[in-house]
Write a structure and sequence with these properties.
This protein is an alpha/beta fold. The protein contains eleven helices and 20 strands.
Amino acid sequence: MNPPANQAAARLRLRITAAAETVVRSGHPWLFADSIHETNRAGQPGELAVIYDRKDKFLAVGLFDPDSPIRVRILHAGKPQTLDSAWWRSHLEKTLAVRRNLFDAQTTGYRLIHGESDGWPGLVLDKYAATLVLKIYTAAWLPRLDEIVALFQEKIPCARIVLRLSRNIQPFAEKQFQRRDGQMLLGSLPAAAVIFSENGIQFEADVLRGQKTGFFLDQRENRAAVEKLSSGRRVLNAFSFSGGFSVFAARGGAQSVTDLDISGHALESAKRNFALNKIFPGVAACRHETVQADTFEWLPAGAETFDLIVLDPPSLAKRATEREGAIRAYEKLNSLGIARLARGGILVAGSCSAHVSAPEFFNAVRRAAAPAGRNFSELKTTQHPPDHPAGFKEAAYLKVIYLKFA
C-alpha cells in the first residue's frame, strides 16, 4: 500500500519515553501523544510513523494521527519490515484466515476485521451477506481508503461496501476527503433492506444509519444461548434494539416476548425482524409486544413478572471518569430487573462498557441479586466471541452473566 500523496519524502521518525518503550514492546497497539519526546518533522494524517528507542533501534511502525490523543496506532512491532502492497495483502489474508472455519452457510453476518486486536487499529469490517460495512475510528485511515477498498474487493467477494465514520472524525472527513458517514464506496444499495442470516434466522441491518455497523454481531453466541433457555417462558428483552434476542427466544419456544426500547425506530425494526422469521413455528406462535419507554423508568413502574429477562444496555461508561457511576447504575438496573423475575426466572445481564471490567460488572450483578432475598445460581459468564477478539486490556468490553433464581 503506497503512502498518502501528501506524505513528505523524509520518513516520519519518533522517539518515545522509556515507559512508552516498555508498553510498545509489550504489544500494546496505542502510542499516546504525551509519550513522544522527539520527532524529525510534523506528521500528516495517515502516514507511517517509525518509532525508535533511545538506542536508535527500530521498535514499531504505525499510522500517525496528529489530531488524536492516540498519536500512533501501531501496525507492526519487532523486526523492521517494509509495509508495501505485498505486506498489506498478506496482513489481510492472515486476518481473514482466522474466520475461515468459524461459520457455516446458516450465518452470513459476522466481523471480518476487529480493529487493533486483528492488527488493523481503528478499523472494523463487518459482513452482512453480500454487503461489507467498513467503519473507521481514526482519520489516519482516510487517505488510504481507495487502496483499502481495492484490497478488500480483491480478497473478499462482495456486492457493495458501505463507509461508516466515527462521529468525532466526520467533519474532518467531509472537509478534507469528501467522505461521509453512510457513503457507498463500492456498488449500490439494494432497493430493500440488507438482510443477513444468523444461525438460520434472518435479520435486517441498517448499514447506513444504524448503531455501530447496523447490528450487534458480537452478541451472536448469547442470542443462541437465550434460545435454548426460552421454551415456555415469558421473555422481556430490555434495551431490545431491533429484537435480536427476542427472535431467538421465540424460535426457542417462548410463550411471549416483550421488546422494550426507548427508540420507536428500533422497535419497528424488531417487528420487521419477527415478520421475517414467521416460517419458524415458534416465532409464528409467540405473542410479540413492543413497548417504547425508558427501561430505568418502566421496570419499577409495573408489576407484571417474566420468566426470562435480558438486560443489555448501551455502554453506561463512555469514559474512564464515568466508571464508578456506571457500576452503580448496573447494580441498580439489575436490581430492578430481578424484582420483575418470576419464581424460577433467569436473568441475562450484559455490559459493553470497556471502562468497567468483567469482574467489576459480574460483582455488581451479584450484589444486585443478594438483597432480593432469593436463592440464585450462576449458570455461566461469557465474554468475546471469536470474531471479536480482545487482544489487549482496553479492547475487552463485552461481558454477560446468567443467573437463575429460585
